[in-house]
Amino acid sequence: MVAFVLAAIAGIINVIGLLGFDHQAVTHMTGSTSILAEAVAAAEPSRALHILLIIVAFLAGTVISGCLIQDSTLQLGRRYGAALILESALLAGAMFLLRDNHQWGMYCAACACGLQNAMMTTYSGTIIRTTHISGMVTDLGIAFGHRLRGLPVDRRRVRLCISVISGFFVGGVGGAMLFERIGFETLWVPIVITAAGGIGYAGWRTANHFA
Questions:
Q1: Which residues, other chains included, contact 146 with Cβ-Cβ below 8 Å and sequence gap of 6+?
Q2: How far apart are alpha carbons 76 and 163 in whole angstroms?
Q3: Which pTM was predicted?
Q4: Angle between the N-to-C axes of helices 2-19 and 155-182, in degrees from 0 to 180, rounded to the nearest 10
Q5: For the chain, which residues make up each domain, given as ranges?
Q6: How far is the C-alpha of 77 from the C-alpha of 205, rounded, in Å?
Q7: Are the C-beta atoms of 167 and 5 separated by less than 8 Å?
Q8: Predicted pLDDT at 134
Q9: Residues 180 and 21: beta-carbon distance below 8 Å
């Protein structure tokens, strides 16, 4: 359920980036790197710098996550609450900046996505990415291939892949529909979800006296 919600959040953020004035994805860096390469080849320094800053902002988010949580494996008691609250703050900043057509909003959104993606990259030995689905689609295809050959399949991994893929898709659909009505105010949805999750987790962590 957590993976579904986080993937849905990323789906909302990414579709807003695509539908907004910049028309740029912010939840995954593969496409951004290709666009950067194209901009460099076309000798367009301002566009290249903009895309590079999106990549750097995403990287900065992962660095912040590494400093806060200090591990990539899900383990109750770690500072996920602080990470989620910070993600909420970054998304709030992104919303206000994007409403004013300011490119720094894209950098805040990319940083928030990097932070989220790095929060929980491993669970029970299973690799998880909640801001992009290329790996999940690949793993799902491998599982189906194994099934066709009569080989054993990790059903937990399949369920996780389906959860992340469907969450990202549902978030994208909902985000696109809301964007048509309220524009960048759509970001209030992930802002509220991450803030509520962060505050709730931080309260639980305090109540259980984790160091």
A1: 152, 153
A2: 21
A3: 0.89
A4: 40
A5: 2-207
A6: 6
A7: yes
A8: 87
A9: no
